[in-house]
Please model this.
Amino acid sequence: MADRKRTRCAIYTRKSSEEGLEQDFNSLDAQREACEAYVLSQKHEGWTVLSDRYDDGGFSGGNMERPGLVRLLDDIRAKRVDVIVVYKVDRLTRSLADFAKIVEVFDAQGISFVAVTQQFNTTTSMGRLTLNVLLSFAQFEREIAGERIRDKFRASRQKGMWMGGSVPLGYEVKDRALVINEIEAAKVRLIYKQYMELGSVRDLAGYLDSNGIRSHRRATQSGKVIGGHRITRGSLYLLLQNPVYIGIVVHKGTRHPGLHQPIIEQALWDQVQASLSENRVEHRSQTRARVPSPLAGLVFDSSGERLTPTHSRRASLRYRYYVSQTLVIGRPRSDVASKRWRIPAIELENTVQAALTSFLDDQSELNSIFQLGQMTPVETTAVLESATSLSLSLGKLDLAQLRKALQTYVARVEISDTTIAVTLSLTELRHALRLSPPNGGQSHVHTIVAPVRVTKRGVEQRLVVGGGVMTPVKRDETLVKAVARACAWFDDIRMGKIADLSEIAIREKLPRSYVQAHLPLAFLAPRIVQAILDGTQPADLSAKQLMYRTDLSVEWAKQTSQLGFADWYRQ
Model:
């Protein structure tokens, strides 16, 4: 008689909690022993147990993020398993949605599934129906348990009890209750009083940092020491608005009197909340901002980190930037290896505005996205004229008006090392162009992706967008001054007013080498000089680059290519 085909059986075991797993014979061992006994009873069918163990101790059955289950599914796809054996169905999963995914993998590979205490086989429709019924009850049981826990948590909160979580600065936990730590509570009182004196969270953060006041340093139950860091602005906002300091606990937005003692008096708390509210309203309305940031809240990097508007001053001049949060808070994030961005605001805003204008001017794109071909010629002409009018108006807006426009029509701006993606709100553009709302099959957003090259000048980055099409940049007064000075010095030499470079150096009180480095700028092509005066030169072109570029040709045609103007100017 021919030998029976060998059936490879993988035993999967799971236990939700880690309790008892340290024992010599635990729940996982008991499940495996029962499964091995069942496989042995099928020895006449050629069933054998695989030596690999697929155990998940301390993992919930409510999801599929379990190392043992992941390895099992991988081995199934690799055709190393023929039958899955479990003690009960709910050991495999307690979720109907997850069960459907798992069975789909089983069916695709021709795998049978057996629960030794329930005798089910998923290769039959009746077996699948019975399993679905069982899993429905398992999921119901899990949801009921969750509801019980939430009800208990809510009832405890309503009684003012502390139910765990991050311990607020100024308190410590004793016998599962919040108790005031007088040393740390003094910091909290100081923070509230100093905020009322300074009136600014930014200034308050600087005050605490300069005075060496740090967050509470403590050890967790596992022995890990946390805290002792500089108190950031974000932490201060949370601390100044935390009602726990006036003896209140909050659950699902509802406040309840707490059993712990307050640290802050009600009068001081009310003053702080009024000041925070006033500052928040003024910030949102931009009444305090001399120069609003049109893209505030819209700019992100490729890791999803938001770029924050900020500014710096040099003498009486104000320079705006969009800066990574890692630079704002002063320390890198640990969850992502994000790049640190510091982009001049005017460049980024001009780039986004140019993308929006380009979209409005592209009639074929408008026709494709808004399906203008389904409209009458008169209606189509009206839409295209509205788009042209809106495009022209964008170039005439002041910064406050531009902010309103970009906040309306732009949904998101994402920057990476190689691209800049501008996502437009088609819903708002439809409204502006007097188009009917989209039907269910039409998109609400449209993303324009352009290649970008990022160059660095000092601590800031400059953007050069799209195959030779440069981003409009602000006029570089340092570069303009360098070109003007070089032309003036060359005229003095040409007209015989100056004998040599040394005489210029003495007159201007500058090193002779510095004067010599300037002179080549007097021989730039007229079109390049005009671009510098207009502020339309490549973003990475600087006075320093020109002065010390030894290979700069004296031929104007070659200069345009060397300095990145070739795609703009045709000789």
Observations:
- Residues 281-289, 467-473, 567-571 have pLDDT under 50 and may be disordered.
- The radius of gyration is 35 Å.
